[in-house]
Amino acid sequence: EAGVAQSPRYKIIEKRQSVAFWCNPISGHATLYWYQQILGQGPKLLIQFQNNGVVDDSQLPKDRFSAERLKGVDSTLKIQPAKLEDSAVYLCASSRDSSPLHFGNGTRLTVT
Amino acid sequence: AQSVTQPDIHITVSEGASLELRCNYSYGATPYLFWYVQSPGQGLQLLLKYFSGDTLVQGIKGFEAEFKRSQSSFNLRKPSVHWSDAAEYFCAVADTGTASKLTFGTGTRLQVTL
């Protein structure tokens, strides 16, 4: 089966600009997660979707981050405006029911 | 809330030597436990998982891990390390009832010398 697809792989922006990341989960996986991985740290959950509904966004900085999963398949994570501390790898993961996660290769964001 | 501690930030071993990476968790009940590996520029790959039953679990690439409830530990082991095992290793815990909503440790970077 095809894996979790993410794009772009790399993005460099200046602070206060906006950026968007895209994720296409494995076919049939109803649950989709976005994680933020800052250099030297483990991934931290930002938001969890079940189909096209948000299950948990308690750790999403909602003043600048937003995410959507239209039609319960692809998802987009947006940052507007970006701050220096948003520099990180943004990982998308999906799962079927309560099975273990499958991760994409991530998008590395550098904010200058 | 659950948490995971990986006490070793960086470990260096010689190729062919044995490996043990430490992981301690904090959780009120019996958790679901995982080890993931991340190579540079790559996503995370699942090595093994523990849900219940036999406390010694086997994973891919010759790795195994042992769940010890009394020590709240889930250490990862490999008898003989290969140079290709150099990577970042993450221990993670999930809420009981779901295997997918994970809390990760800070990771251990493994360097393998030839």
Total beta-strand segments of chain A: 11
Question: What is the typical, i.e. mean, pLDDT of chain A?
Answer: 94
Oligomeric composition of the shown chains: heterodimer
On the 0-100 scale, what is the average pLDDT of chain B?
Answer: 92
Biggest β-sheet description of chain B: 6 strands, mixed
Query: What series of H and E elements makes up the topology of chain A?
Result: EEEEEEEEEEE
Tally the helices of chain A: 0
Low-confidence stretches of chain A: none
Strand content of chain B: over 45%
Rg of chain A, alpha carbons: 13 Å
Shape of chain B: globular
Distance between the termini of chain B: 41 Å
Largest sheet of chain A: 7 strands, mixed
The total of helices of chain B stands at 0
Strand count of chain B: 12
Share of helix of chain B, binned: under 10%
Walk me through this protein's architecture.
- The complex is a heterodimer of chains A (112) and B (114).
- Chain A is an all-beta fold.
- Helices cover 0% and strands 49% of the residues of chain A.
- Chain A is built from no helices and eleven strands.
- Chain A has strands spanning 5-7, 10-13, 19-24, 31-37, 44-50, 53-56, 65-68, 75-79, 88-95, 102-103, 107-111.
- In chain A, strand 4 and strand 5 form a beta hairpin.
- Chain B is mostly beta strands and 114 residues long.
- Helix content of chain B is 0%, strand content 52%.
- The N and C termini of chain B lie far apart (41 Å).
- Chains A and B meet through strand 5, strand 9 and strand 10 of A and strand 6 and strand 11 of B.
Task: Give the secondary structure arrangement, pairings included.
The complex is a heterodimer of chains A (112) and B (114).
Chain A: E1 5-7, E2 10-13, E3 19-24, E4 31-37, E5 44-50, E6 53-56, E7 65-68, E8 75-79, E9 88-95, E10 102-103, E11 107-111
Parallel strand pairs in A: 2-11
Antiparallel strand pairs in A: 1-3, 3-8, 4-5, 4-9, 5-6, 7-8, 9-10, 9-11
Chain B: E1 3-5, E2 10-14, E3 19-21, E4 24-26, E5 32-38, E6 44-50, E7 56-58, E8 64-68, E9 73-78, E10 87-94, E11 102-104, E12 108-113
Parallel strand pairs in B: 2-12
Antiparallel strand pairs in B: 1-4, 3-9, 5-6, 5-10, 7-8, 8-9, 10-11, 10-12
